[in-house]
Amino acid sequence: MRTAIGSAQERRTPETARPDGDALPLGLRTVVVLGLASVAGLLAFGWPLVLSPGSGLEHSTDAPLVLAGLLVAVLGVVFVSLSDGGIDVKAVAVLGLLSAVGAVLRPLSAGTAGVELIFVVIVLGGRVFGPGFGFALGSTTVFASALLTGGVGPWMPFQMLAASWVGLGAGLLPRRVRGRREVALLVGYGAVAALAFGMAMNLSFWPFQLGTGTSLSFVPGAALGTNLHRFVLYSAATSLGWDLGRAITTGVGLALVGGPVLAALRRTSARAAFGAGARRAPR
């Protein structure tokens, strides 16, 4: 009996024998920092729908503030985890490597029909290494790719935060789902998240792009339902094709490489013992 049990345990692969280890574990202070960063981000994206007219907010002034706040939030996540003893140089090295891969893929893939592969890296990294790592990976990947392509501008902080949410959500998906069901889960999540990313980016500059006087324009002080209806029409008319292209590309990319990349990242996680480090860390 014991021999049979031992043999069965030996036949289990590392992916099924142990859960994923969080490279950047979520202690209480980390959760607070992530929560505050997300609340600030929601306000930055959605303020036109909730603030009264005449607020005087313009992208020329709020985008640098959002960028500064976002960078502080990401650094806060890292330093809080460092103080908790939950991240080490190996985790920083993996974060840098995956950020570099995403930064290289972005200029190679972005372009016709919304083809975009950056979210494949962010989703898989967040899935294996945890929500805190996924949040940081989203921001650092967009930041690195912006520096590489000269894409620094008032839109960059919004892209960074939206990509961070994509990585965070991937890390929060159910951990016990594995195999083909896991890949299918990631395909569905990645496609929806990529589509939501485009909608969020539309919302970040929609009030300032069309001016006033059109059926698609933002109306200061109008009811929430009215502006939401106008925003949906605006998104459908201007960027739906690009957003669907991004969603399809992300889903197809995850379907094609999700299985082998997950296995490779989990081997890296097992050798680095992120999970063991997280369990030893004080919470």
Question: What structural keywords apply?
Answer:
single chain; 283 residues; mainly alpha; Arp2/3 complex 21 kDa subunit ARPC3; 76% helix; 0% strand; globular; disordered N terminus
**CATH hierarchy: architecture:** Orthogonal Bundle
Shape: globular
Count of strand segments: 0
According to CATH, what is the class?
Mainly Alpha
Question: What is the count of structural domains?
Answer: 1
The proportion of strand residues reads: under 5%
Main sheet attributes: strand count, strand direction, barrel closure: none
Mean pLDDT: 77
Number of helices: 12
**Fraction of helical residues:** over 70%
Low-confidence segments: 1-18, 277-283
Order of helices and strands: HHHHHHHHHHHH
Radius of gyration: 20 Å
Query: Based on helices, strands and strand pairing, what is the structural class?
Result: mainly alpha
